[in-house]
Design brief:
By secondary structure, this protein is an alpha/beta fold. The chain has one domain: Alpha/Beta hydrolase fold, catalytic domain (Rossmann fold, 3-Layer(aba) Sandwich). Helices cover 36% and strands 20% of the residues. A hairpin with a 6-residue loop joins strand 7 and strand 8. The protein is globular, with a radius of gyration of 17 Å.
C-alpha cells in the first residue's frame, strides 16, 4: 500500500494479518523512530508476531525517514533533509484516515519506538479513534541536542547525522528546529500530550537503554492522564532490546517486550 506523505512524496505502508477473508481484527499501527524505517531489524518480525497474535499489523515509513527501499539506505536524501515532527504526525494521521476510510475496525492501537513512541503519544492524546497505546523506549522530549549544537545547526543551516550501520553521514536541515520552535510548546509538547492520554497505555523500556534513559519512561508515566498506564522494565535491555539490522534473530529481551505487548493489546482491544 502506498499513500501520499505530508511532504508530497510516497508514504510506504505494509499490512500483515492472518485473518481470513472478511474477518475483522483489531489494528495496530507501528511507528519507527529516528534513523529507523519499517523494515529495520525487529519491525517486520514484530508485525508478524502481532499478526499471529490476532491483530492486523500496519508498519510504514515516515516521509522524513528518507528510506525508499527495504535495504534501509537513505536513498531519498532531500526528504530526510526536510524532515519535521509535524510531518511525522501528519503521516501517521494519513495512515489512520486511510484505515478508517477502508472500513478497518474502530478499535485501533498505536505502538511507537523511540521518537516514534513520542509521535504515538501525540496522536493518542488527540485522536479518539485510538483505543490503546504502547510505547517502547519512547522519548519524553523531542529536543535531543545541546544549546551549543543548536547554535551550530542554525549557523550552518544543517546538522550532520551519522548512521553507524550504513556509514552514511547525512545533513538534516533547520526545518526540524523551526518546527520545534513554533510548536514545541503546543502540538509537539509530549508531556502535555501524555496528560491527555486516557486510553490504556503500556510503557516498555530497557533498564540499560543507552540512548533514551529510563527516567524518560518514568516521566511519561508520571505525566500520563490514563488511569490504566503502566511501566514495565526489561532487565539488561538496551534501546533496541538487543535486536540488530540486518536481522540476526530475536533476543530474550525482545521476546519479552513483544509478549508483554501482545498480552496487553489482547486485553485492551479484546
Amino acid at each position: 500500500m502506498c499513500l501520499l506523505g505530508a511532504d508530497g512524496g510516497p508514504l510506504r505502508v505494509d499490512v500483515r494479518t492472518s485473518a481470513r477473508q472478511g474477518e475483522v481484527r483489531p489494528t495496530v499501527v507501528v511507528c519507527h523512530g529516528f534513523k529507523g524505517f519499517k523494515d529495520w531489524g525487529f519491525f517486520p518480525r514484530l508485525g508478524e508476531r502481532l499478526a499471529l497474535a490476532g491483530f492486523t499489523a500496519v508498519t510504514f515509513n515516515f516521509s522524513g525517514s528518507g528510506v525508499g527501499s527495504c535495504e534501509g539506505v537513505v536513498d531519498e536524501p532531500d526528504r530526510w533533509f526536510r524532515q519535521t515532527l509535524s510531518n511525522d504526525l501528519a503521516d501517521l494521521d494519513a495512515v489512520l484516515a486511510h484505515l478508517a476510510g477502508s472500513g478497518e475496525p474502530p478499535w485501533l492501537a498505536l505502538l511507537g519506538h523511540s521518537r516514534g513512541g513520542g509521535i504515538a503519544v501525540l496522536q493518542a492524546g488527540r485522536d479518539r479513534r485510538v483505543r490503546a497505546l504502547v510505547t517502547w523506549a519512547a522519548v519524553s522530549s523531542f529536543l535531543r541536542y545541546s544549546p551549543e549544537e543548536v547554535v551550530a545547526w542554525r549557523r550552518d543551516g544543517r546538522i550532520q547525522v551519522a548512521n553507524a550501520r550504513t556509514g552514511q553521514v547525512l545533513p538534516v536541515g533547520t526545518a526540524l528546529l523551526d518546527d520545534l520552535d513554533l510548536n514545541g510548546a503546543g502540538s509537539l509538547d509530549l508531556i502535555a500530550a501524555a496528560g491527555r492520554v486516557r486510553v490504556p497505555w503500556l510503557i516498555v523500556h530497557g533498564r540499560a537503554d543507552e540512548t533514551v534513559p529510563v527516567s524518560e519512561a518514568e516521566r511519561l508515566l508520571e505525566a500520563s492522564g490514563s488511569p490504566l498506564a503502566a511501566l514495565r522494565l526489561v532487565q539488561r535491555a538496551g534501546h533496541t532490546f538487543g535486536a540488530r539490522h540486518p536481522w540476526a534473530g530475536s533476543t530474550r529481551e525482545l521476546d519479552q517486550a513483544i509478549g508483554w505487548t501482545a498480552e496487553f493489546l489482547g486485553q485492551a482491544l479484546g
